[in-house]
Amino acid sequence: MNHFELKGGELACEDVPLAKIAEAVGTPVYVYSSATLQRHVTVLRDALVGAGLKDPLIAFAVKANPNVAVLRTLAQAGAGADVVSQGEIRRALAAGIAPERIVFSGVGKSEAEIAFALETGVAEINLESEPELHLVNAVAQRLGKRAVVAIRVNPDVEAGGHAKISTGKAENKFGVSMIEAERLYANAANMAGVRPVGVACHIGSQITDLAPMEEAFAKMRGLVERLRAEGLGVERLDLGGGLGAPYFNAPTPPTPADYAAMIARTMAGLTDIQFAFEPGRMIAANAGVLLAQVQHVNARPGGRKFLVLDAAMNDLLRPAMYDAWHDIRPVKPRDGEPVTYDVVGPICETGDTFTRDRVLPPMEAGDLVAFMTAGAYGAAMSSEYNSRLLVPEVLVKGDRFAVVRPRPTYDDMLARETPAPWL
Ligand code: LLP
């Protein structure tokens, strides 16, 4: 469910017409709904608690939407943060998220990042490899600390979905094997600089079938039981993120209730364990849209019609990068026969095509359109390619809205660069 609906014939975010935001801020612009963001955290937590999981940590995957106002909105609903860089730790802290609710994941954490995480007191560092275990052990000892760690396991399951975002097969770069995890956990328990508290997994993103998750989670449960049988304490089990969002063309993702029921079933009888989750997309995706304006309609003699927008692949990379499908809705739908369009941006490469042969209501230059389900991995992956200004972001709450990342000026853009002394 989301809070982008037609009100009085035009698309609104909560009680704010999108046209009003376009007029005030210009386009392209991302628009987020506070109500949708908060609802998703609440629905997930209620489902998990309802299924019998006590006090789960919902650590929002900051990479999906790192805007500090978004993070603060989620934190107010009780979310923590899953972070993968020093920058993300700093964003989570700036949003008021307590370090005890921050989990630090990522394949290649640098020494400086590990030191920063330890000084900050993040809840847990998820270790992805043996060298990383030794690095964290060394850094922690140097700082006179004992790092609280979990071992990220690669459960070797096929999660389906796009190859570029699948992470849980043995051939992927993430985590260690089950066998290795047992050995590393036992080693870690004897190291002065680390204290292993749990195990973690994350098998992929935009998963719409619970079966691979269930397979992975059952393996994780088995691992917890084996570690405990060896006399090792396991207090936490981090099951990652990955639940899909409704993109309208794809299979409908499982509901949070079905997801929670599957976990309760898989973990039945496992006691004294705190569950953690790292959802990104399912929280933020349909809490946001990318609002754009039609520059012109370019009708080719052969009959192909290009709908040229002022948004481009630098603002929303997912279609170019993953062939992702986003629903495109006119903000003020016109009456008339639907038209088949290729929807494109102004960037000078063919990859700057959002979609081909999309049947939409008739459009004219100046019309506004919204790319739906764009709140996750949208602004987060935007860039200045073609020296286009970084896309701004707006947060809506009820009948109010605020620019939470302003559009930079061209002077801002140029001021970041410094000439080489010989030029
Ligand atoms: N935890 C870890 C360790 C992750 O690597 C990820 C996502 C998540 C949690 C959150 O997964 P989610 O719940 O959002 O599926 N840019 C791509 C998605 C990349 C996902 C990377 N890792 C896209 O636009 O589809």
Descriptive report:
It is a single chain. The protein folds into two domains: 4-32 and 285-415, Lyase, Ornithine Decarboxylase, Chain A, domain 1, CATH 2.40.37; 34-283, TIM Barrel, CATH 3.20.20.10. Helix content is 30%, strand content 24%. It contains twelve helices and 20 strands. The strands form three sheets. Strands 4, 13, 14, 15, 16, 17, 18, 19 and 20 form a nine-stranded mixed sheet that branches. Strands 5-6-7-8-9-10-11-12 form an eight-stranded parallel beta barrel, surrounded by seven helices. Strands 1-2-3 form a three-stranded antiparallel sheet. The radius of gyration is 23 Å and the shape is globular. The protein binds ligand LLP. The site of ligand LLP has 20 residues, from helix 10 and helix 11.
Q: Main traits of this protein?
A:
alpha/beta; 423 residues; 20 strands; TIM Barrel; 12 helices
Short description:
This protein has helices at residues 18-25, 34-50, 68-76, 86-94, 111-120, 130-142, 178-189, 210-229, 256-267, 281-284, 318-322, 410-415, and strands at residues 4-7, 10-13, 16-17, 29-33, 57-61, 80-83, 102-104, 124-127, 147-152, 194-200, 236-238, 274-277, 288-299, 305-309, 328-330, 339-344, 353-360, 368-371, 393-397, 400-405. It has 423 residues and is α/β, with parallel strands linked by helices.
General shape: globular
> What is the CA-atom radius of gyration, in angstroms?
23 Å
Query: Tell me about the biggest sheet?
Result: 9 strands, mixed
Oligomer: single chain
Identify the CATH architecture of the largest domain: Alpha-Beta Barrel
Ions and ligands: ligand LLP
- Distinct helical segment count: 12
Strand content: 15-25%
Overall pLDDT, averaged? 96
Distance between the termini: 55 Å
Q: Under the CATH scheme, which class of the largest domain?
A: Alpha Beta
The percent range for helix content is: 25-40%
CATH topology category name of the largest domain: TIM Barrel
Task: Give the structural class.
Answer: alpha/beta
Low-confidence stretches: none
Q: What is the total domain count?
A: 2
The beta-strand count equals: 20
CATH evolutionary superfamily of the largest domain: Alanine racemase
